[in-house]
Structure formats: C-alpha cells, structure tokens
Amino acid sequence: MIELSHLTKVYGDVAVVHDVNMHVEAGTITVIVGTSGSGKSTLLRMVNRLVEPTKGRVLVEGRDVLKMPAHELRRSIGYAIQSHGLFPHWTVARNIATVPMLLGWDRKKVAARVEELMELFQLDHVQFADRYPHELSGGQQQRVGVARAMAAKPTLLLMDEPFGALDPIIRGKAQADLKAIQRRTGTTILLVTHDMDEAIHLGDRIAVMNGGDLKQYAPAADILARPADAFVDDLIGPADRPFHYLTLGTVRTAVEPGEADGAPLAADTSLYEGLGALLWSGRRTAPVVDASGAALGRVSLGGIADKAARPR
Amino acid sequence: MIRDLLRPGILLRLVVFAALVAFLAAPDRFAGLLAPLTSNGAPSIYTQSSLIDLTLAHLFTVALSTFAAAVLAVGLAIFVTRPAGVEFLALSRAIVNIGQTFPPVAVLALSVPAMGFGEAPTRMALFLYGLLPIFENTLVGLSTLPPAVVETASAMGMTGRQRLLKVELPLAMPLIIEGIRLSAVIGLATATIGSTVAAKGLGEVIVAGLLSNNLAFIVQGGVITGILAVLISDIFTAVARRATKRRGAPSAAARTEPDGRQTSGA
To answer: FRET partner for B149 with CA separation of 20 to 30 A, picked from A115, A165, A225, B65?
Structure first.
C-alpha cells in the first residue's frame, strides 16, 4: 500500500526525518508513535506531500507520489488532524462533501454519501446536517473531521493525532469506533500519536520514531516483548508493559477447563479487563462464556498472569 | 422580517433615512427650519444646484473611488499573501502607506494641472486615500486564518485558487468588508474638499456657505454628508456581522486546542 524508501526531510542542517524505510500493508492500521519533535508528523505529511521530501521516495499503491499533481494525490488520500480543521463557514454536510465536490461527483451521489457517512459516524442527519462546526461538541467535530476524510472512499487515510483534543472518555469511544469502521471498510490507516496506549490499542503495527530515525517497526506484541532500544523501552514504560501486553489478548486465550463462581466473563473480553474484573471482585477464578452464553470453562488469576509474562 | 424592522436601532435609522429623502426631495419645505441660521434675509436652502443631484454625484464619486481602491487593495493583498508575491509585501505596504500619508488636498492640488478641474482629481485623491484601510484589513484577514483550516484545505486537495476562493476569502470577508467600510466613510467625508477643484458634490454647498457666511448652507451640506456616512457605515457593519455570524466565533477552530499544541508541529 505504502512504500517509503530512504525518505529524508532536511530543514536547514537538521534532518527532521532521516532515511526512513517502511512498508505499510493494505487494510491495516499502522501507528507512528514518538515524542514531539521526533519527525512523526513530518513523515506522515510526506505521504500526501504537505511536506516535500528532501530525498527518498514514497509509493502509494505503486504510484510515485512525487510524480502526481499534488492536489490530485491529496484528493485520493483521506486526511484528518487533531484540531479537525473543519471549514467554519460551511455546514456539517458541506464540510463532509468537500472532496466529493472537488472530484465533481453529481449532487445526488454527494448527498447520499454524506447521509451514509453521518449515519456511520452516529450523527443524526436531520439534526446536524445544516449546523455549523462551532455549534458542535468537540467529539462531534472530530467525527465530522474523520467523516470528511473518508468521504470520497479513499483507500488510504492519514491521521495526525486525530483524538488529541478529546477528553479521555470520548477518546476511548472514538478509538473503538475508528477501529470498528476501519475493520468494516478495510481502509488502510496511517496514524500519528504520542500516546503509546493509543498506539497499542489501535495499531496492527507500530512504528517508533525518535530524533528523525525510525527506531522500530513491528507488531505491537513484538514492540512490547522486544523493544529495540532504551528509548522504545522508555516510551512503553516498563511498569506498564505487562498490562499493555494483556490488552492485546482476549480471555478466550487463557481459558482452562473447570468451573467457577460469580458473574461470567465474555470470551472476547481483553485479558486486561478480565484481570481487572477478577481483582475487583476478589475472585481467583471466573467462568467464561461465549457470545451465545455457552460455558467455555474458567479463567484464573494465574492463567492471566502467565499471559503477561515476557514471551521467550 | 417585520420584527427586525421594528428593532429600535433599525427603526431610528429608517426614520433618519426617511427624513433625509424627504429633505432631498423637496428642500423648500424645510426652509423655515433652517431660516434662523441665516441673517439679512439670505436664502436658507442652497439652490445653485439641486441638492439631490449633488448628493447623488457625491455618492457616485465615493462609490467609484472606493470600488477601485477595493479592487486594487484586495488584489494586492491577495498577491502578497501568495508564495509568489511574498517578496512584494514590504513594497506594497510602502506604496499604500504613501497613498494614506499624502494629504488628499495635496493630491488635488498636484493632480489639477495634469487632470484638469472637475471630478477626476477628487476620485484620484479618494482612491489613493482609500487603499490603506482595505489593504491592511485584507492582509490581516488573509494572514490570520486558523492554520489548521488553511492546511486542511490543501490536504483535501484544493488547488491554490480553490483554497483562496472557497476558504480564505470567505473567512477573511468580515475584515475585508470592515476595511471597505472605513474607506467609504473616510471617502464620503473627504470628498467634500473636491468642490475646491470644481467637483460636483456636497462640498459645493458647504463651500458656498463658507464663502457667503451662510450657516444654513454649511449645516445642510454637513448634515447630509454626516447622515450618509453614518447610514453607509451601518450598512457595511450589518453585512460584516452577517458574514461573521454564519461562521460562529472568529477562530473557533483555532481555539479548540486545549493543550496549545500547534498542529503544524513535527
């Protein structure tokens, strides 16, 4: 989907992004994580040429982005940012319709697409279509921003700290919604964040940037198990590591035969939530049921603890 | 709509406008009102030219020069905020500043030998004088747009031209209108001096009053100009407010960054 080779951006004497090579698989969520000044946003912006690379090459679906007119390239790639950048003088519907209108879709098709997206992002069409951005809450503005980015059905979506401006509760929901929508549409997402939790929660693969270098690029589990260097280790936070690890698996993977008392856990609950439920209810074991409610066995504190241990 | 018209502010302006129209339509009827301002039986209403003609000529001169100033100033401000024109910013500023610093009277004096007597020197003076407020306001409007909004416009795939026409100009519009309002109001007052070089306008009435020591002439010329200035200013303000209202708080988009992080950061 995306192929970055020897990608470099130099401002003055400083290489903000230095010789990055990366391959992003179609249909996945890849999260670029790093501290501020690590070059993660610059890297993202070179994909749709908001920043022109100093050196190196970007291929999107096999096409060299530097050989396409910038505005055509950008119309084919969705883009959403932290402060959503909604056009304040346009209604919600007109905002979402931005790219389809630029592409010259006919009016009916645009209207249908806007309605479809508003439903997808749980924005009531009757209530919100004709409102202006400043009349919406932060969470609603953010959803409109992402809906706008996906309006022309791009196969690739770039997101720069899309949830950074949201409070923790809305952020959690927005992340879950994005993941669900991504699974449904199969859109490839390249997302930038400084938040390792968000990276682990969303990313099929995680790219860690520091000082312009790509330090590590691997699935979340690998990053947690085998951080490439002290910086990556720091970013994860050694104390949180086993807990992060538990968020990646489901209770289903720790089911053992047997019975237990108390409220059952759903098999698709994350190990992390399962651990929390056991600790808080003061139990050592809990029954596990599948989606239909059929008993699968039980899960124990020890069983979950085994899953949190560093893999060998 | 009806309810809008009944708001006290609007009602007052409608009354003032009606009075102005009534006076211009038949000034003679108001002769008695202005008579106490005259002495020795001098006429209290200016009759050398029709007041309504002078008013329309005055408005036309101001409209023409303000329009020309707006076209050039907005065009120049757009040009110097494009990548290709950035280098010309200082130069353009200097030029429009000279236009504002140079007194209109001096412009009149200097342009009469070249352009002759009549409206042309006045229009030239007003045009030069009107450039600065429009230029500076447009410049501020175009250069203080929320960065996230301008960047997203590009990121959505707008061309430079589409970004200007669909996003930047509409968002800068309240400030641009404010600049035009300033120029129009200043122009309306300044245009009165045009009569010293034989331009048709309300200055003629004031100058006649000064020459013949007729306070009634001075007052009617001055009051008509003043009322026009206030009404025109109000119309521009109302239009600008409409443009602002539709998009909510001026930079709502820029203000929703709780941690102050700039979206353009690395």
So the answer is: A115
Q: Is position B173 within any domain?
A: yes
pLDDT at B254 over 50: no
Would residue B3 count as lying in a domain?
no
> What is the CATH architecture assignment of A2-237?
3-Layer(aba) Sandwich (3.40)
Pairing type for strands A205-210 and A29-33 reads parallel
Per-residue pLDDT band for B4 (boundaries 50, 70, 90) equals low
pLDDT over 60 (residue B11) = yes
pTM of the model: 0.81
Nearest CB neighbour to B263, from listed A72, A76, A83: A83
Q: Are A40 and A33 in contact (CB under 8 A)?
A: yes
Low-confidence winner among A184-188, B169-173, B178-182, B197-201 (lowest mean pLDDT): B197-201
Question: Could you tell me the residue ranges of all domains in chain A?
Answer: 2-237, 244-308
- The CATH class given to the A244-308 domain equals alpha beta
Indicate the number of domains in chain B: 1
In a domain, B256, yes or no: no
The verdict on residue B2 lying in a domain is: no
Give the tokens for residue B163.
Answer: 């970004």
Query: Hey, what are B53's tokens?
Result: 């003609």
Q: Under DSSP, is residue A62 helix (H, G, I), strand (E, B) or coil?
A: coil
Domain range for B160: 8-247
Q: For residue B167, which residues of chain A lie inside 8 Å, CB to CB?
A: 87, 89
State the average pLDDT for chain B.
Answer: 86
What is the pLDDT, as a whole number, of residue A1?
86
Contacts of A134 in chain B (CB under 8 A): 247-249, 252
User: Using a CB cutoff of 8 Å and minimum separation of 24, what contacts does B6-13 make?
Assistant: B13/B231, B13/B234
Q: What is the pLDDT of residues B67-125, one digit of tens each?
A: 999 999 999 999 999 988 889 999 998 988 888 888 888 888 888 888 888 888 899 99
Q: Enter the tokens of residue B3.
A: 């309810």
Taking a C-beta distance cutoff of 8 angstroms, is the pair A187, A150 a contact? yes
- Give the nearest chain A residue to B160 (CA atoms): A71
Torsions phi, psi for A147 (to 5 deg): -60, -40
Q: In the 8-state DSSP scheme, what is residue A123?
A: -
Complex confidence, ipTM: 0.81
Please name the member of A85, A133, A165 whose beta carbon is closest to the beta carbon of B151.
Answer: A85
Q: Is B248 on the interface with A (CB under 8 A)?
A: yes
Nearest CA-CA distance, residue B98 and chain A, Å: 35
Phi-psi region of B116 (alpha: psi -120 to 50; beta: other; left: phi over 0): left
DSSP string, A254-281: G-BSS---SSPEETTSBHHHHHHHHHHH
